């Protein structure tokens, strides 16, 4: 005769999937560990299996991670785009995947109008818009097609000054424009007279001063600054306060010794020091150098580019070269400035998602809990986000150690197969541009890429898989 045992509550239960069971257990006081499990993305089972079984994948991803970790980023010069890229008047570069004027969003159109005015190619916004619409002596290309990156709209014209960074380990270079600050600025689609006046001062005073300072001293190790700032509360995308001050410390002596008028030096120093995001435009090309080092590896499933143009979100993957995988961009959710609200925000825009592609930014939110005051969410959200990002990356970057996670390296190398298998998307911290041209910045928030980009990439990788 069997012995009957009284029912006892379990010591703990692990639940996965729908939260109904976990909620019921919580109500009964049963300790519950919730696992955020989701089935693989629908319609891609065969492709996921083919890519996962590709015998090249593991070694290719390891090679990509090694390349990313060994990449260097040194500021070597500051020059106009006409010299760096041989860019002529009327040739404009922009953020994100390829775009035409007809499909351009409000902030992208605003930035292009402003660039026309800045270059003297039109004497009014209306005249600039007419020339852009007609394609009269103008051309548009992505910054990424020229090895660089542009924040928000990312519009670069021939007279704009650029930071030039070098990765000697992989013999490559990258670049980015100088940061204008926040609010009504060109990169957010504003083109008011004060915007153009600021750009002219940056071209006439700030750019040449920084050029003299950089050329006078030793090359500035931008990667080392990134490593320091990550341990000082910056995540490298929407928080760059420590990075900006560390950079200013590097260039200030050379600025003072440059022989330039003291008023110009004081104005430049004040402009950099009061612009918490100034370093972003140095961190972005550093991240571009890191991800470019992992590009074009057959069989590799690591993402090498994530970029947005205000209309589309596009990614590139190491194993498929420079092919874009594109879907409509999402609109960020977060906090708004002044009287602006969700209806004022444009869909996601900018090349600054290269920071997340490299493993910082939204992927490293845990290192910058103060960021939640700027983009929304909570400190536990920031910690959980970074911990979740380890599930979709191929490794960690010890150079970007996160103190609150016991100095664990930042999650690095977004893996298309992991995203498709888990349906966990990379987290991006971003600013928000006003959807109407000329508005400028309306807020900052959080956003993820469209899953369609990763599904398309997975299908393309499956076509190339060797099984």
Would you mind describing this structure in some detail?
It is built from 16 helices and 17 strands. It has helices at residues 20-27, 45-52, 57-70, 81-84, 106-118, 125-134, 193-216, 222-230, 241-256, 262-273, 280-292, 354-358, 372-375, 379-389, 416-422, 451-464; strands spanning 13-16, 32-35, 74-80, 91-94, 139-142, 161-167, 172-177, 220-221, 303-309, 312-317, 325-328, 333-336, 349-350, 393-402, 408-414, 428-433, 441-447. The strands form six sheets. The chain has a four-stranded antiparallel sheet with strand order 7-6-3-8. Strands 11-10-9-13 form a four-stranded antiparallel sheet. β10 and β11 form a beta hairpin. The chain is globular.
Number of helices: 16
Strand content: 15-25%
How much is the average pLDDT? 93
Gyration radius, in Å: 23 Å
Structural class based on helices, strands and sheet pairing: alpha+beta
Largest pleated sheet: 4 strands, antiparallel
Strand adjacency order, main sheet? 7-6-3-8
Provide the low-confidence segments as ranges: none
Write a short abstract of this structure.
With 467 residues, the chain is of the alpha+beta class. The chain has 16 helices and 17 strands. The chain is globular, with a radius of gyration of 23 Å.
Q: Which descriptors would you attach to this protein?
A:
single chain, 4-stranded antiparallel sheet, 16 helices, 17 strands
Which helices and strands, and how do they pair?
Elements: E1 13-16, H1 20-27, E2 32-35, H2 45-52, H3 57-70, E3 74-80, H4 81-84, E4 91-94, H5 106-118, H6 125-134, E5 139-142, E6 161-167, E7 172-177, H7 193-216, E8 220-221, H8 222-230, H9 241-256, H10 262-273, H11 280-292, E9 303-309, E10 312-317, E11 325-328, E12 333-336, E13 349-350, H12 354-358, H13 372-375, H14 379-389, E14 393-402, E15 408-414, H15 416-422, E16 428-433, E17 441-447, H16 451-464
Parallel strand pairs: 1-2, 4-5
Antiparallel strand pairs: 3-6, 3-8, 6-7, 9-10, 9-13, 10-11, 12-17, 14-15, 16-17
Helix pairs in contact: 2-16, 3-11, 5-6, 5-7, 7-9, 8-9, 9-10, 15-16
């Amino acid at each position: 005769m069997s012995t009957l045992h009284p029912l006892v509550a379990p010591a703990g239960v692990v639940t996965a999937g729908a939260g109904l069971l976990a909620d019921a257990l919580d109500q009964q006081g049963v300790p519950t560990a919730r696992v955020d499990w989701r089935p693989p993305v629908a319609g891609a089972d065969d492709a996921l299996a083919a890519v996962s079984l590709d015998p090249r994948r593991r070694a290719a991803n390891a090679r990509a991670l090694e390349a990313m970790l060994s990449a260097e980023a040194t500021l070597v010069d500051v020059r106009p785009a006409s010299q760096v890229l041989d860019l002529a008047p009327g040739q404009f570069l922009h953020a994100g995947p390829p775009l035409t004027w007809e499909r351009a969003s409000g902030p992208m159109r605003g930035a292009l109008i402003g660039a026309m005015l800045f270059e003297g190619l039109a004497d009014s916004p209306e005249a600039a818009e007419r020339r852009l619409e007609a394609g009269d002596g103008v051309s548009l290309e992505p910054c990424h097609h020229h090895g660089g990156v542009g924040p928000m709209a990312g519009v670069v014209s021939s007279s704009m000054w650029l930071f030039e960074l070098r990765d000697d380990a992989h013999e490559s270079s990258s670049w980015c424009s100088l940061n204008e600050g926040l609010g009504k600025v060109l990169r957010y689609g504003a083109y008011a007279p004060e915007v153009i006046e600021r750009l002219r001062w940056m071209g006439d005073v700030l750019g040449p001063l920084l050029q003299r300072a950089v050329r006078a001293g030793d090359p500035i190790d931008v990667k080392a600054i990134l490593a320091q700032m990550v341990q000082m509360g910056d995540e490298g995308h929407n928080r760059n306060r420590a990075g900006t001050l560390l950079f200013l410390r590097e260039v200030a002596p050379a600025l003072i010794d440059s022989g330039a008028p003291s008023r110009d030096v004081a104005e430049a120093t004040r402009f950099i020091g009061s612009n918490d995001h100034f370093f972003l435009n140095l961190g972005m090309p550093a991240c571009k150098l890191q991800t470019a080092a992992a590009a074009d590896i057959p069989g590799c499933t690591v993402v090498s580019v994530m970029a947005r143009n205000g209309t589309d979100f596009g990614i590139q993957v190491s194993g498929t070269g420079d092919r874009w995988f594109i879907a409509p961009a999402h609109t960020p959710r977060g906090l708004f400035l002044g009287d602006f609200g969700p209806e004022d925000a444009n869909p996601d825009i900018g090349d600054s998602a290269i920071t997340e592609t490299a493993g910082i930014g939204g992927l490293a939110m845990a290192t910058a809990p103060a960021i939640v005051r700027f983009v929304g969410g909570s400190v536990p959200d920031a910690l959980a986000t970074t911990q979740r990002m380890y599930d979709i990356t191929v490794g960690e970057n010890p150079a970007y150690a996160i103190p609150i996670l016991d100095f664990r390296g930042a999650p690095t190398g977004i893996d298309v197969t992991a995203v498709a298998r888990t349906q966990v998307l990379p987290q991006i911290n971003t600013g928000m541009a006003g959807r109407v041209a000329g508005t400028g910045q309306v807020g900052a928030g959080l956003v993820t890429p469209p899953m369609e980009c990763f599904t398309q990439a997975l299908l393309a990788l499956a076509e190339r898989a060797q099984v």
